[in-house]
Design a protein that fits this description.
Blueprint: H1 2-20, E1 30-31, E2 41-43, H2 45-53, H3 57-67, E3 76-82, E4 86-91, H4 93-106, E5 120-124, H5 136-154, E6 158-165, H6 170-180, H7 194-209, H8 214-226, H9 233-255, E7 262-265, H10 266-271, H11 274-284, E8 288-290, E9 300-303, E10 312-316, H12 324-335, E11 344-350, E12 356-361, E13 377-383, H13 387-401, H14 403-407, E14 409-414, E15 417-420, H15 421-426, E16 436-438, H16 449-467, H17 473-493, E17 501-503, H18 505-508, H19 516-533, H20 541-544, H21 550-560, H22 562-571, H23 575-595, H24 604-627
Parallel strand pairs: 5-6, 5-13, 6-7, 7-12, 13-14, 15-17
Antiparallel strand pairs: 1-2, 2-4, 3-4, 8-9, 9-10, 11-12, 15-16
Helix pairs in contact: 1-3, 2-3, 4-21, 4-24, 5-17, 6-7, 6-8, 11-12, 12-13, 16-17, 19-23, 19-24, 21-23, 21-24, 22-23, 23-24
């Protein structure tokens, strides 16, 4: 909040001074200079004006500086023009410290900003086919979607989270083939988690059997056709099976801290006539075209000009079955309220936090339910392999409802998660000379999310017990779970979305360095200082005047920028901005802690001021971590 005010004061001072010099209006940047000797903020207005007026940038910077007034600019200490034409500003650190600590110490929701203003947002994430367990790669989707939800809610948006369940696709059909025609027992022979059994055993082995048993391939096509008739025996069996698998998948998602508002089953898009209505509109507007010859004869397709991968996409196959993208189009229209809501809703399960998870039904609703869909903004989170399909969805929305609708539909894509060669070898997978392998469910090249979480939990439990030998087992278990979740979430969120993540099991077990546990340890260290002090930090101008050291100033400025980072993360749907900020913040705090005494400081004003700084860090770290779905324990 405070650094935002400093930027605003700098900008206003420069605008007024430029106007006083009768310079034309230009959009200029207020940025942090690369080195601290150049001040806290710098502006580039002179270079922009130079291109317009053909005057020397340094001369312009000097003329503007001569007209700058600091009257009423409580956060600016001084300013100075600098070659070749910048104007640098230094903050009034004492005022910056007082205003920052006053807010960061006392406000429970420090950094909260209302930029959403009640905008209705739906986020679709996870959406794992209900035929298997989540593998580690799926967790990138889960933690990204859940963190975006947390950030958008914190910034004033009304957010609902959807989980799309593809219960009529080929992967589900593979499992049905396994149970119905390949002799796999419906119940696992051991106490194996059910989604693991269906994925690791049935799904993978059925895909192996397809090579030697072409009759099973024929059976798969029969199953896919039968799934379009909700009254068929196969459809009824599939409903029971997929819901059982979804419940097991949800246990993994809850374990990582994710929560949902509604499950949208793909079969209900067909059964509710949403697809039929949209398909009819597409035919009338000539968006959907029936092919009478060529490669796609007998199919309904949509042509999208400019697609590098090809200019058409099948909506309905020649056998009458709808493709994945065909079902995604009405779903997108429902999200944005472009078509009537024809779903029924029923309570699916109560989640660990006590909230109700609803699910669509093909029949009427049971009881009162929240309003779903009809959003101002719809965010769909999938991996980069879905980019082309999502562009087709946006294209159809544009043709059906205009550019505004297409702009309100956002595809947030991320790169895949691969396995390191070493991790693949530990799973018994031959990698040859490859450095990594992309995960592939059909081929059995993956590591289940539960197995990673179990391994991390075991590692963190051992370390936590060694640090706290007298603690109860219940406390050790709860704390270890929090640390394991932090390790997974932070590791997946700190990366750029367009960068592939190579998962290495041994590397993931490290809890030091740029990790979630490192941030948790910093928070716990701050909590320990405050507890030992026995003092409730109070912020006064007299005390904060002693915070004039470079380490203290660095930490203060980072705390003062928190709301700017939150805003950046919200606008760009980028939790990585928060992840990197929290690591930098924690590093600054640890440097301050190691070199500056707090409780042992003899000067009372300095001691109180530093305690306030510790409290401000603790509060900022706790809130920022929560936006990433990471709990910040007071002890580890």
């Amino acid at each position: 909040m405070v650094f935002r005010r400093l930027i605003a004061q700098v900008r206003k001072s420069v605008v007024e001074a430029a106007k006083a010099n009768e310079f034309p209006s230009v959009k200029f940047e207020v940025v942090e200079p690369p080195k601290p000797q150049f001040g806290d903020l710098s502006v580039n207005i002179a270079f922009l004006l130079s291109s317009k007026t053909k005057q020397d940038p340094m001369e312009i910077a000097q003329r503007i500086s001569n007209k700058i007034s600091l009257r009423g600019r409580d956060l600016i200490l001084k300013f100075q023009p600098a070659r070749p034409g910048y104007i640098n500003f230094w903050a009034n650190q004492e005022e910056l410290a007082f205003q920052t600590l006053e807010k960061a110490v006392l406000e429970e929701e420090y950094g909260k900003i209302n930029i959403g203003r009640g905008r209705r947002v739906v986020i679709e994430h996870t959406s794992v086919n209900p035929n298997k367990a989540l593998h580690y790669g799926h967790l990138r989707n889960v933690v990204l979607g859940d963190s975006v939800k947390r950030i958008l809610k914190f910034t004033g948006n009304d957010v609902q989270v959807l989980n799309y369940i593809d219960d009529s696709g080929a992967q589900v059909a593979d499992v049905i083939v396994g149970f119905r025609y390949a002799g796999f027992p419906v119940e696992p022979p051991s106490q194996e988690k059910y989604d693991h059994y269906c994925g690791d055993t049935v799904y993978v082995k059925v895909n192996e059997l397809y090579r030697s048993r072409p009759d099973l391939v024929h059976r798969q096509r029969e199953v896919l056709k039968a799934l379009e008739n909700p009254d068929s025996q196969i459809a009824k069996f599939t409903r029971e099976l997929t819901r059982r698998i979804v419940r097991e998948q949800l246990k993994t998602c809850w374990r990582i801290g994710a929560r949902y508002d509604c499950l949208n089953f793909e079969t209900h898009i067909i059964g509710s006539s949403l697809w039929a209505e949209v398909f009819g509109r597409m035919k009338r507007k000539r968006i959907a075209i029936f092919e009478k010859q060529g490669k796609y004869v007998g199919c309904w397709i949509v042509k999208v000009k400019g697609e590098e991968e090809g200019e058409e996409k099948v909506l309905v196959r020649s056998d009458g079955t709808a493709t994945y993208v065909a079902k995604d189009i009405p779903y997108a229209g429902w999200k944005l309220g472009l078509i009537p809501d024809k779903f029924g809703y029923q309570k699916f399960v109560e989640q660990p936090d006590g909230s109700t998870l609803w699910a669509t039904t093909a029949k009427g609703s049971s009881g009162r339910h929240p309003r779903f869909g009809r959003a101002d903004l719809a965010i769909t989170i999938t991996d980069v392999k879905q980019k082309r399909l999502q562009r087709i969805v946006s294209y159809v929305l544009d043709k059906l409802a205009g550019a505004k609708a297409a702009k309100s539909y956002v595809h947030l894509a991320y790169e895949l998660v691969s396995l390191s060669a070493e991790t693949a070898r530990t799973l018994g997978i031959e990698v040859g000379e490859e450095e990594f392998l992309h995960m592939a469910g059909r081929k059995g090249i993956y590591i289940n999310a539960d197995d990673v979480l179990d391994a991390l939990y075991k590692k963190t439990y051992e370390e936590t017990r060694s640090r706290n030998p007298t603690e109860t087992n219940a406390w050790l278990e709860l704390t270890s779970q929090k640390v394991a979740v932090a390790a997974v979430r932070f590791g997946l969120l700190k990366q750029d979305l367009d960068k592939m993540i190579t998962f290495d099991l041994l590397e993931s077990l490290k809890l030091e360095g740029e990790t979630g546990p490192y941030i948790q340890y910093a928070h716990a260290r701050a909590s320990n200082i405050l507890q030992k002090s026995g003092v409730q930090p109070a912020v006064t101008r007299e005390s904060v005047s002693s915070l004039n050291d470079e380490l203290e100033g660095d930490l203060l400025k980072k705390i003062a920028k928190f709301d700017l980072i939150v805003e950046e993360a919200a606008i760009n749907f980028a939790p990585k901005a928060l992840a990197r900020y929290l690591y930098s913040l924690s590093t600054s705090f640890n440097s301050f802690y190691e070199k500056k005494p707090v409780i042992q400081e003899k000067n009372e004003n300095t001691r109180l001021a530093r305690l306030g700084l510790v409290k401000a860090f603790q509060n900022t770290c706790r809130i920022g971590s929560s936006l990433l779905g990471i709990e910040a324990p007071e002890r580890i």
